[in-house]
């Protein structure tokens, strides 16, 4: 998105033409590439993240790399990558408040 240029590039593998019509982009110049491989049901979040990652790194996005058998591995790796990028990721103490688990019982 470039606000000064009033330009948006929409990377969308899900919305139908009817859904797209709901959003007014009249004041923006935009492009909607059509060569995006479609996501399968339930995969859209991971698919979108991996597609964005490939675009950002200049890597060709291969639909076969996104095959169903790779789904869990990709999700696990993404979770680890995100966790490792957190500031102080390894300094967490007991922040889930286990001492108060019974507070809402009974």
Automatic annotation (TrEMBL):
Keyword Signal: no
Domain called Ubiquitin-like protease family profile: residue spans: 12-86
Gene3D superfamilies per UniProt: Adenoviral Proteinase, Chain A
Keyword field: Hydrolase, Protease
Recorded GO MF terms: cysteine-type peptidase activity
GO biological process, one term: proteolysis
InterPro entries linked: Papain-like_cys_pep_sf (IPR038765), Peptidase_C48_C (IPR003653)
Top-rank taxon: Eukaryota
Protein name according to UniProt: (rape) hypothetical protein
Lineage per the UniProt record: Eukaryota, Viridiplantae, Streptophyta, Embryophyta, Tracheophyta
